[in-house]
Design a protein that fits this description.
It is a single chain. This protein has 170 residues and is α+β, with helices and mostly antiparallel strands. The chain folds into two domains: 3-80, no CATH class; 87-169, no CATH class. Helices cover 42% and strands 20% of the residues. It has helices spanning 3-19, 25-48, 54-80, 87-90; strands at residues 91-96, 120-122, 125-128, 133-136, 139-141, 150-151, 154-158, 161-165, 168-169. The strands form four sheets. The protein has a three-stranded antiparallel sheet. The chain has a two-stranded antiparallel ribbon with strand order 2-5. A two-stranded antiparallel sheet has the order 3-4. Helix 1 (3-19) packs parallel to helix 3 (54-80) and helix 2 runs antiparallel to helix 3. The termini are far apart.
Length: 170
């Protein structure tokens, strides 16, 4: 293995390991899918370049794809609350004197189908995005290892005002 290839491999591995902050299911799936697609695209581009270096292209593309995919998956995990493992982690900076009134839940049609092995059903709930409530429909979700109960988002009284707490696992 040449010196530039070793350097690229080392940098790619470091970037890949640093790219995924969370460990939620969407973060992991996004990183794997992004890494695979990035490696494929990088290999094609690298092979078609003047130096015909498909390996280096695959490594760089894989690392970039994994970081991008993991970042996108991480945002979905944060929206769904899959990354929070305590009320303290799930607490936001949104504070109000009186929480806004929550609308009535929409009428959901739930078709009972078994979920993936190990997945738990999370009932639909309203998530507050800082400005308004957004409905998140019921869905199957893989809990983080060692966690079995999903606590839906809610408002909690803290030091003279209400703080919005995102959904979390315990």
């Amino acid at each position: 293995m040449t010196q530039p290839t070793k350097l690229i491999l080392t940098l790619s591995l470091c970037a890949l390991c640093a790219g995924c902050v969370g460990t939620g299911p969407n973060t992991q799936q996004g990183a794997v899918a992004g890494g695979a697609l990035g490696a494929l695209a990088g290999a094609i581009i690298g092979n078609n370049s003047a130096g015909h270096n498909g390996l280096a292209g695959a490594l760089i593309g894989g690392a970039a794809g994994a970081i991008a995919g993991g970042t996108l998956g991480n945002s979905v995990d944060n929206q769904r609350g899959t990354l929070y493992r305590s009320e303290q982690e799930a607490a936001t900076t949104v504070t109000v004197q009186q929480p806004p009134a929550m609308p009535a839940p929409p009428q959901e049609v739930i078709t009972v189908q078994p979920g993936p092995p190990g997945a738990l059903w999370v009932n639909g709930y309203y998530a507050f995005d800082g400005y308004r409530y957004v409905w998140v429909g019921g869905h199957w979700e893989m809990p983080p290892q060692g966690y079995r109960i999903y606590v839906a988002p809610h408002w909690a009284w803290r030091r003279g005002s209400y703080v919005y707490i995102r959904g979390y696992w315990r």
